[in-house]
Write a structure and sequence with these properties.
Elements: E1 5-9, H1 13-26, E2 32-36, H2 39-46, E3 51-57, E4 70-77, E5 88-91, H3 96-109, E6 125-130, H4 138-151, E7 156-160, H5 167-170, H6 179-188, H7 193-200, E8 202-204, E9 207-210, H8 216-220, H9 224-237, E10 242-246, H10 254-260, E11 263-267, H11 273-288, H12 292-296, E12 298-301, H13 321-333
Parallel strand pairs: 1-2, 1-3, 3-4, 4-5, 6-10, 6-11, 7-9, 7-10, 11-12
Antiparallel strand pairs: 8-9
Length: about 325
């Protein structure tokens, strides 16, 4: 099977090079990125193998486009003065991240664009972070671990499954869709997992993440077997080295996810009697239910005192006291 081709055709060569560089850096769904400054060059190249996606600048568009062998064609609209019908349209002058997200979302939703399942090229490890007392440092610790692994050159996907993440405020951003939208799509269109994932994911300090759920009721409504299928798809049909779960009990597959994890990092607060009691309760429950595999994979850790003061910027967690602590924790778990 040949490489999937993402072609861009526009007369602005500087724009072409910037967009190509962005796509190569983003590694969007493992496409081979091709650029052309004339429609005829794109036509000739498509004869050697179909393009998966073709972006065409509005100013360079002409009827020759209909002859190009491409599964999905999107027009990069500039001023909207040229009449173009029959193709998806995306605004050319917007952030490249937003534009590519729109293009990949269009591709994933197009029933005429099919692809095949692929097995992961890498051995993917699943790691869960959990705090029995819902200690507020859980997400900081899990995200920091993802960033540390990304610093080592690993491909990492961080998934937040807490009822309230606060990410939009913490990261000063907004999300048009979240992890539950992703799940509902890929469970029905598993062959397009990589495209939908790339259209939705965000990146922080080299680690990818899926926007957390806005309404935790959406997480509660997802059935246990759906969580099982969802994780299996990510573990065996994506190219991540590590998947980091920031776990909570709002997921029906809570124990299943823990059992599937290669490693479980249990964040405890040994400075209060309440934190100690909740951690003890959780471990007693695991013993009572005979979840021996979960117990074997648990590593307990605490965060340094006053960690909050150094963790205001989530992009720089690795250089904080939490980063120093998590580096030790990860090395101990190797």
């Amino acid at each position: 099977m040949g490489a999937k081709k993402f072609a861009i055709c526009d007369k602005d060569q500087e724009y072409l090079k910037m967009l190509q560089a962005y796509l190569l850096k983003r590694n969007a769904a493992d496409f081979t990125v091709l650029i052309f400054d004339t429609v005829n060059k794109a036509l000739e190249a498509s004869k050697e193998g179909a393009f998966e996606i073709l972006l065409v600048g509005e100013e360079i568009y002409d009827s020759t486009i209909t002859k190009i062998n491409a599964k999905k064609v999107c027009i990069l609209q500039e001023d909207g003065t040229k009449e173009v019908t029959g193709y998806s349209v995306v605004a050319k002058y917007q952030s490249m991240e937003r534009m590519i997200t729109q293009v990949l979302a269009e591709f994933a939703l197009d029933e005429n664009c099919t692809t095949t399942n692929r097995c992961s090229k890498n051995k993917t490890s699943l790691v869960s972070f959990y705090a029995p007392d819902r200690y507020k440092g859980q997400s900081v610790a899990a995200l920091c671990a993802a960033e540390l692994l990304a610093d080592k050159g690993h491909r990492v996907l961080y998934i937040n499954l807490l009822a309230f993440s606060g990410f939009e405020e913490l990261m000063q951003t907004s999300y048009e869709a979240d992890i539950t939208d992703f799940m509902y799509f890929v469970l029905n269109h598993s062959e397009k997992l990589s495209y939908k994932l790339d259209s939705l994911k965000r990146c922080i300090h080299g680690a990818d993440y899926l926007p957390p759920a806005l309404d935790y009721a959406d997480l509660l409504a997802i059935e246990r077997d759906a969580w099982e299928r969802f994780l299996s798809l990510l573990l065996y049909n994506s190219d991540y080295d590590w998947i980091i779960l920031d776990l909570s009990e709002v997921c029906q597959g809570f124990y299943d996810m823990l059992e599937k994890s290669n490693k479980i990092y249990l964040l405890t607060d040994d400075t209060t009697i309440y934190g100690q009691a909740m951690a003890s309760h959780f471990k007693k429950l695991l013993h009572a239910k005979e979840y021996n595999k979960i117990l074997e994979h648990i590593t307990e850790f605490t965060l340094p005192a006053h960690w909050e003061e150094q963790c205001r910027n989530l992009e720089k967690l690795t250089s904080s006291s939490v980063g120093i602590r998590l580096k030790e924790v990860l090395e101990e778990g190797e």
